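Run log // design_07
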C-alpha cells in the first residue's frame, strides 16, 4: 500500500505527541482516501513543507507566497510521493534554489509538526484542505533563488518571524523548531 509509509510516520508522531489531536484527522483522511497523495483528491490532499534554518541555525527562511499573499514556510504538493520527507526536500530545493539540506537529527522519520489548513477556491479549483506534514531542515547555504511561486524569499532572525506573519500555524512551527534546535 503506497500510503503505508505515511501511516507509519503518523503513528510515530502520535506516540511522541499524544496530546495533538490533529493526527487523528490525518490518519482518518489517509485511511479514507486512497488518492490522498494526489492533487486530484478534491476534498484535500497531503502536502509536505519545511521549516528551514540557516547554516548557523539563527535564521528561518520564509517565502511570500504568490497565490496566498502571505509569508509562509516553503512546501507544496507531494504529487504521489509516498515518502513525504523526500517531497519536503524537493519542494525546499525548488522554492529556495538551495541544493543541499540536512534533515535535522531525528526528523527524517519524524515530522516536526502536522497542520490542516483550508485553501480557498481559486478559478475552477474548489476550496480544499491541505494536510501538511512539516519537517525541520538546515540549509547548507544561504544563497537564494526566488521561484515563480513566490513574491519574495527572505531569511528572518528566529526571534523576528512573528513580525513577518501572524499565521498561528507558522508561528507554532517556529516555536517547535526552536525547541528542537535546543535539544
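design_07 sequence
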Amino acid at each position: 500500500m503506497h500510503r503505508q509509509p505515511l501511516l507509519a510516520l503518523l503513528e510515530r508522531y502520535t506516540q511522541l505527541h499524544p496530546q495533538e489531536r490533529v493526527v487523528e484527522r490525518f490518519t482518518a483522511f489517509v485511511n479514507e482516501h486512497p488518492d490522498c497523495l494526489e492533487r486530484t483528491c478534491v476534498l484535500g490532499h497531503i502536502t509536505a513543507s519545511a521549516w528551514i534554518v540557516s547554516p548557523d541555525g539563527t535564521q528561518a527562511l520564509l517565502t511570500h507566497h504568490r497565490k496566498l499573499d502571505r509569508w509562509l514556510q516553503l512546501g507544496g504538493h507531494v504529487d504521489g510521493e509516498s515518502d513525504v520527507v523526500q517531497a519536503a526536500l524537493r519542494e525546499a530545493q525548488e522554492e529556495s534554489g538551495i541544493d543541499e539540506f540536512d534533515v535535522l537529527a531525528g526528523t527524517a522519520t519524524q515530522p516536526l509538526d502536522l497542520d490542516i489548513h483550508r485553501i480557498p477556491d481559486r478559478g475552477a479549483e474548489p476550496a480544499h484542505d491541505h494536510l501538511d506534514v512539516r519537517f525541520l531542515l538546515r540549509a547548507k547555504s544561504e544563497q537564494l533563488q526566488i521561484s515563480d511561486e513566490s513574491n519574495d524569499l527572505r531569511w528572518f532572525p528566529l526571534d523576528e518571524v512573528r513580525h513577518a506573519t501572524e499565521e498561528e500555524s507558522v508561528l507554532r512551527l517556529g516555536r517547535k523548531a526552536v525547541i528542537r534546535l535546543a535539544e
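Residues 168-182 form the longest helix (15 residues).
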